[in-house]
């Protein structure tokens, strides 16, 4: 895996020098910029995976720079650092897709932990993307190879060119093909083709199975079994081919012709990774295509239908005729969609369309197939059980020598899980990992949203600042694991008590902030607040321990008390009044307005004893 690229943008040279020393290592390459303008220029040339930037800079500030960069790259991880005196920076940064926030001065341990987490996420995404891209490239190379092999009587005239394409698609460093000298019990094999990017690799043109101690490999290939291993996992006596071709990983696939072992195809790379099952299965297709071409018993149409691409790939495959009627599908198609051949035979592939794409999408798709012979992209389809799935799909038009379309071949992979991971990472950026509640980064945004709706409907918004009483003794007595479960118990109680339009946020530690939207009266607000305070009647049962929950609550109301983030401050002040009044109570910031007059409330402090 290539080094991770990090771009640091700050006009403070001391800060950039500190970050440079903290960040640069064997896995990260760090580039520095001293202004927003320079940051944009270096982003374009450097192409970083992570961008770290200050906000306050002369000229183009950090947020202005991030807006430009987000238009250039929607996937790059972005972290900003400042003292955040201006709280509006947080909301603007969230809207721009900032992934992480740091406060100056830096806590080195926390900073590096966050950077390592971001790096781990990026490496995981890059690994998945690289695997998907490599697999798709192999499929395309195999598909092209199958057409060229089967359209030429002398298939080996195209072999060298197609094997080069396959080597590049599989990200291999070496590729070779050997033909056995005898058919019954071969003692040696002669090299048929050899490609290697390492000039030091000079293998012999004849491979004697006995002298190189490859009898075990020979028996494995005769049984139609492939060989897939790392050099380090093989005993020294079995490393001959690894040294011959200067590779660390080797996949060897037998080639059969007319049911007889003809020889083998070898593919190696210099990385310490074996070929994964998906790529290995697809590469087996190549050996079968070679065997089919050697046989020369089938015409182009039948070989395309019965090729190993169709039989053995783990991706779904369907073959349609020139009228776009489904004629054949493979087992993976049934596994993914739930449809059998009897159910889709003679049907148009739009049979399992999801309804998520408009006419323009399909018009552009078919325009590209008609003008370029293929289409490739992401598409949403629907399974037999009604479940929608996301597919990475390619559609190829198979033409005869007169240029007429005879078949359409579609190959697709179900990438729903990968897209689900992307959504999960976005969710983690705005939610508390322990409780699943919203975190404080989006709290002000939710308050503004609630106020906007309240103004339209002439209603109120209430902010409840809740702080658990005597929470530290719970951690000290039972341990932090139990303390975490108490917090989860509270989060579950709040979720079960409140309405869908209300917002629950874990503000930090044992503090929770609740936003009650569209409150039509103080009576409604009081009833909801009292219902929340009834958590004190719901002790947590954890590991056999009955743990009482006590809580102090402060309440502020819009528009009576404040607006925006000041609502949180007022609710916090009211909560501390409740603490000073003896804890396990609820206090409204302006009690005379909240619980008086026509609402018929008599006190500003309500004690909820357990």
Describe this structure as you would to a colleague:
It is a single chain. The chain is an alpha+beta fold and 610 residues long. The protein folds into 4 domains: 4-106, Rossmann fold (3-Layer(aba) Sandwich); 128-299, GAF domain (Beta-Lactamase), CATH 3.30.450.40; 315-416, 2-Layer Sandwich (Beta-Lactamase); 431-607, Alpha-Beta Plaits (2-Layer Sandwich), CATH 3.30.70.270. The protein is built from 21 helices and 24 strands. The strands form 5 sheets. A 6-stranded antiparallel beta sheet has the order 8-7-6-11-10-9, with helices on both faces. Strands 18-19-17-22-23-24 form a 6-stranded mixed beta sheet, with helices on both faces. Strand 4 (77-82), helix 4 and strand 5 form a beta-alpha-beta unit. The longest helix is centred in the N-terminal third of the chain and has 44 residues, at 108-151. The chain is elongated. The relative contact order is 0.06.
Number of helices: 21
Assembly type: single chain
| CATH topology group of the largest domain | Alpha-Beta Plaits
* Overall CATH architecture of the largest domain: 2-Layer Sandwich
**Count of structural domains:** 4
Q: What structural class results from the helix and strand content?
A: alpha+beta
- Estimated helix fraction: 40-55%
Low-confidence stretches: 297-304, 595-610
The CATH homologous superfamily of the largest domain is called: Reverse transcriptase/Diguanylate cyclase domain
Query: Can you summarize the main beta sheet?
Result: 6 strands, antiparallel
Estimate the mean pLDDT confidence: 84
Round the Cα radius of gyration to an integer and report it. Answer: 33 Å
């Amino acid at each position: 895996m290539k080094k991770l690229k990090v771009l640091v943008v700050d006009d403070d040279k001391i800060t950039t020098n500190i970050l440079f020393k903290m960040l640069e290592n064997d896995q990260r390459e760090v580039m520095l910029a001293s202004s927003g303008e320079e940051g944009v220029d270096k982003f374009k040339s450097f192409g970083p995976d992570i961008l770290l930037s200050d906000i306050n800079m002369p000229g183009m500030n950090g947020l202005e720079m991030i807006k430009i960069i987000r238009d250039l790259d929607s996937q790059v991880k972005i972290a900003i650092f400042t003292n955040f005196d201006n709280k509006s920076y947080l909301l603007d940064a969230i809207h721009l897709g900032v992934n992480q926030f740091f406060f100056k001065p830096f806590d080195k341990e926390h900073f590096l932990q966050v950077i390592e987490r971001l790096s781990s996420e990026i490496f995981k995404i890059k690994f998945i993307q690289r695997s998907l891209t490599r697999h798709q490239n192999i499929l395309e190379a195999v598909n092209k190879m199958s057409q060229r092999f089967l359209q030429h009587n002398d298939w080996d005239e195209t072999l060298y060119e197609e094997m080069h394409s396959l080597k590049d698609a599989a990200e291999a460093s070496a590729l070779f093909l050997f033909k056995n000298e005898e058919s019954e019990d071969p003692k040696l094999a002669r090299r048929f083709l050899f490609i290697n990017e390492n000039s030091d690799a000079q293998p012999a043109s004849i491979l004697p199975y006995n002298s190189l101690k490859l009898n075990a490999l020979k028996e494995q290939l005769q049984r139609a079994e492939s060989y897939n291993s790392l050099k380090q996992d093989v005993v020294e006596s079995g490393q001959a081919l690894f040294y011959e071709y200067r590779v660390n990983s080797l996949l060897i696939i037998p080639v059969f012709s007319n049911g007889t072992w003809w020889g083998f195809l070898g593919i190696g790379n210099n990385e310490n990774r074996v070929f994964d099952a998906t790529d290995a299965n697809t590469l087996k297709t190549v050996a079968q295509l070679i065997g089919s071409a050697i046989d020369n018993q089938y015409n182009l149409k039948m070989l395309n239908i019965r090729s190993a691409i169709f039989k053995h790939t783990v991706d779904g495959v369907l073959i349609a005729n020139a009228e776009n009627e489904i004629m054949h599908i493979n087992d993976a198609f049934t596994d993914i969609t739930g449809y059998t051949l009897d159910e889709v035979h003679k049907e148009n592939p739009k049979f399992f369309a999801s309804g998520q794409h408009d006419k323009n999408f399909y018009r552009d798709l078919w325009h590209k197939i008609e003008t370029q012979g293929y289409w490739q992209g992401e598409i949403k389809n629907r399974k037999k059980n009604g479940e929608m799935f996301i597919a990475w799909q390619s559609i190829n038009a198979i033409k005869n020598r007169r240029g007429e379309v005879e078949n359409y071949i579609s190959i697709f992979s179900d990438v729903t899980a990968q897209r689900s991971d992307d959504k999960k990472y976005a969710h983690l950026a705005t939610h508390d990992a322990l409780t699943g509640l919203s975190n404080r980064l989006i709290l002000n945004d939710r308050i503004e949203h609630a106020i906007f709706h309240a103004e339209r409907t002439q209603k109120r918004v209430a902010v409840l600042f809740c702080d658990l009483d005597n929470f530290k003794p719970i951690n000290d007595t039972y341990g932090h694991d139990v303390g975490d479960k108490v917090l989860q118990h509270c989060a579950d109680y709040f979720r079960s008590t409140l309405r869908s339009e209300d917002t629950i946020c874990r503000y930090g530690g044992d503090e929770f902030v609740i936003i009650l939207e569209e409150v039509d009266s103080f009576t409604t607000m009081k009833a909801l607040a009292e219902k929340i305070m009834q958590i004190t009647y719901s002790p947590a049962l954890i590991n056999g321990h009955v743990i009482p929950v006590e809580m102090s609550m402060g309440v502020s109301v819009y528009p009576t008390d404040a607006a925006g983030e000041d609502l949180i401050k007022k609710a916090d002040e009211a909560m501390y009044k409740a603490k000073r009044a003896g804890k396990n109570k609820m206090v409204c910031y302006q009690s005379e307005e909240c619980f008086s007059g026509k609402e018929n409330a008599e006190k500003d402090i309500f004690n909820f004893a357990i």
